[in-house]
Amino acid sequence: MSEKFNIDPDICKASTLPASFYKSHDIFDSIKEKIFLRSWHFAGDESQVNLPGSVYPFVLLDGYLTEPLLLTKDEEGNLHCLSNVCTHRANLIALGSGKHKKLTCLYHGRRFDLKGKFEYMPEFKTAKNFPGDCDHLRNFSLRQWGPLLFAGLQPAFDFEEILAIMEQRVGFLPLNEFKYDATLSKEYLVQAHWALYCDNYLEGFHVPFVHESLNKVLDYGSYTTEIYKHCNLQIGYADQATETFDLPVGHPDHGKNVAAYYYWVFPNLMFNFYPWGLSVNVVKPLSIHRTKVSFISYVLDPEKLEKGAGQALDKVEREDEFVVENVQKGILSSFYKAGRFSPEREKGVHHFHRLLADFLNR
Question: Integer distance in angstroms from the first to the last C-alpha of the chain?
Fold first, then answer.
């Protein structure tokens, strides 16, 4: 990729990424290596590997990264994120979740322990300099927050940095009591570039124009965005008649009516905290103009589900999709080149574009 991007750090002067960013197949492919391989990804939760000996295979960003991974919990109760690709001939090792004492490849019998260490391979007695470091399964970085798990393939920053920021606002919540709810968890197919979906998420500017019901709940005038190095936070405030958090004394927002905390983590993770619980949103690129968005719901208080900013999320999502898919059509215009940022309302989008440019220019 030869094109370089420059987003002025002064939002009052800056222009958005050019339309070519959203239309170039070369850039889309470069993003895979320069951004997604160097980021952190939602890997599920500990319930998938709750007992020693548990094994849970999954494919990370299937259709884009398409990286076969494996969560394991060893006999000491330690969690691991391993490559699910055998180091002999690249066969997938675990084909289903369950309990195992060892990881054994069904192709030629190569065996590993649950930490990914090579143990045995038949018919290799005369092989020289064997086994070597390359014969162990690749072990990837894994971070845990309450029950939630996050994997880093070649991360350019530590997820602990992100967790420390989120803990400042939502650390008072009993995250270990949040329960996954399959009935509330959904997947959406959006006919648009993945970054256009993130652009839309990162500003509340569109709320009065696109989300009539949500706008009645949130106080648009006090909607704020806070920028951090690899993440940002949008805070949705509400009047006293709306369901809000019961914030403890000493909390940064104590005394304020907070209806929602919307955290975004570069490049494609969203953590939407409501009084009822948490919706983790994962934006998954499929092609230059197709994106899958997963809503993964964890409920703390079911009685608050249909109240406040956290209600009717499916309706809000459909409204967002309508706009984003129309932007996708517009971005293909031969005459649209780039836009400008609202200094008051689009700090999050400006931050996102600067990070995209920085990672791609490296």
Answer: 11
List of residues 6+ apart from 219 with CB closer than 8 A: 236, 237, 238, 239, 257
> 60-114, pLDDT tens digit by residue?
999 999 999 999 999 999 999 999 999 999 999 999 999 999 999 999 999 999 9
Give the span between the Cα atoms of 259 and 25, in whole angstroms. 39
CA separation for the pair 221, 255 (Å, rounded): 18
pLDDT digit string, tens, across residues 264-296: 999 999 999 999 999 999 999 999 999 999 999
Beta bridge partners, 298, equal: 180, 278
Task: Using only the alpha carbons of the chain, give its radius of gyration.
Answer: 22
CB 247 within 8 A of CB 260: no
